Amino acid sequence: MRLGKFTLFSGVLILILVIGWYMFLGFGSVQPLVKHTVLGLDLQGGVHVVFQAKELPGSPVNDKTMQSTISIIETRVNELGISEPIIQKQGKDRIIVEIAGYKNPEEAVRTLIKPAVLEFKSPEGEVIVSGKDLKDAIEAKDPSTGLAEVNLTFNAEGAKKFGDFTTKNVGRNLGIYLDGKLLQNPVIQEPITDGKARITGYKDLEEAHRIAVLLRSGALPLKLEILEKKVVGPTLGADSLRRSVKASIIGVIAIFVFMILYYRFPGFIADFALILYATIVLGVMIALKATLTLPGIAGFVLSMGMAVDANILIFERLKEELRLGKTLRSAIDSGFKRAFLTVFDANATTLIAAVILYFLGTGPIRGFAVTLSIGIIASMFTAITFTRWLLFLAADSKVVKNPKLYGA
Amino acid sequence: MFHIIKNRKYWYIISLLIIVPGIISLFIQGLNWGIDFTGGTILEVKFTKSVVSQDIRNVITQEGIKVSSIQLTGEGNYLIRTEELDTAKRDAVVKALENELGQVEVLREDRIGSVVSRELLQKAFLALLIASVLMLLYITFRFEFYFGVAAIIALLHDVFVTIGLFSIFQWEVDSSFVAAILTIIGYSINDTIVIFDRIRENLKKREKGEALEDLINKSLWQTMARSINTVLTVIFVLVSLLLFGGSSIKIFVTAMLIGVTSGAYSSIFNASPIWFDLKRLSSKRKS
Q1: β-strands A291-292, A38-39: how paired?
Q2: Where in the numbering of this chain does the Protein export membrane protein SecD/SecF C-terminal domain appear (chain B) (predicted)?
Q3: What is the rounded end-to-end Cα distance, in angstroms, of chain B?
Q4: Which of B126, B225, B230 sits opposite A360 (nearest CB)?
Q5: Domain end point (choices B112, B134, B157)
Q6: ipTM of this model?
Q7: Domain interval for residue B80
Q8: Cα of A70 to nearest chain B Cα, Å
Q9: How far apart are CA A166 and CA A189, in angstroms?
Q10: What is the pLDDT of residue B28?
């Protein structure tokens, strides 16, 4: 046994173990798998909605109204304190909104599609001022009663209209309507010329805050209908993550054991190649900021099953070459050479399927296609570079001399 | 060694025994389309008190809403499938459940409009078509046309076996099923190509007088260990996902399990025999 090569050989194996352990299981609080991957909605809980935009009287669906609808939704999402939302236009008249990890996704969706048309109307139904005349809306608590309210400030034009009307109509009612629903119908006590008004009657500050956000963001120029909605509660998300990780670990361990039992020493090497492979895939996913979804995890583990295939092909070749009476080194050499083309042709077709899935699929399915594609490329790479190098190294260091341990 | 090619009629019969009932079932009862395709609402809810599905059905039906199925998925967890519910109806259902059956936590909610579902189906067919054509092209380019045809037939075999069994057992089909079918295609072809690759190699060093069927048979046996071992490793993972992976990926994993097993079978017992028959027919026509 040559000590130099042997040290290198075992050093490499230990290094892979350490890196693999670090990436997947982490050390203490440093957890790359959990901390640095983007978890999909199905794993951390969240909501995915597709809105269908429809025209309103005097406001057709076109690029301009869609753009302003999207920016109003963005304002609302941000002001609700939702972090990292995805808001996308799909096709000509659809909007996709994805919100992850928000405690009340149901409520959020409801707030997003509120038309938010605010109107102050005279008893005859004439609109005096509307949401367009607003400069600001902010929630507050009445210092004397402690009740939640929304304070409105009109812009110059609005303040003037509001002032004129209240001056001329003292003693009469002024109805406040939101989306056609009468909120309040107060009597005008005195002229209001400072351009300020308030709406009361909210059950808490949070509700007042939501209304204030709606009023600040303005009314939607288009009507939004829910075309598709997928909500995953945080409990189920966490449960799915835990279950799929457990299932993956068990499946992978089964592969490891099988490889060693069937292929002996090369199988042992292949197991390390697999750890390296999995680490590369995870690293690429983190670098690409790819989203890890439930089908994505399935795709990941599945690609490990397929990654073993490259190794299996090579080892079966290796066995054949050894049976022909070749020396270990030349058997490894020709085994790899002959198996490479096979591996390449076989993987190319799987890659075709994965790419098509990516372009035609949506959401979680895309996540699956991404992990599968990365997996296929990484598996070819590790099999023909790393496994090969390690086997040569092992042969040179004479750590395992008996061809029987290579399965021959 | 056992001659796979000479016994090929039995392999064809076994395949047909699974595929034909599947196709008949497809015509008679079709597939159990999930809401991804039909439109509708799925609510997965957790009750703290113990309830039975009949209670849930009664409460929801009283709201005037059509329930298509209620399924127990875990301790106190139920999957409720109904017609498409708008926000108001959905709220009414949750409220009624809370009033009648105690505290309810909504774990998951899917609502799909029928427009979206029709688009999904079109995309799925498109994907299947594009994938088949591209693979046929790739194999024709790397191997030869008849290899491509045989591989595509083996691939359709796996698709029909999977869809057929889903129809016979009326298992639900959702969008992840489409992803599974496409992965099966990629996987099945992968398996087939490894065998064709060996046939191609053996053809190059074919000895005079060696019959084509013997050559194919030899190639099949040379790759047999690989064919079985590869599918075994994938099956390990799939079974583990099926047993421990939770309800959300069950459809996907079940479809994959059937498809991958069928893929291994068709690669060994269908693809090469079909290629042999195609070759035989074409040389007969020439002479």
Answers
A1: parallel
A2: 97-279
A3: 32
A4: B126
A5: B112
A6: 0.82
A7: 40-112
A8: 21
A9: 9
A10: 94
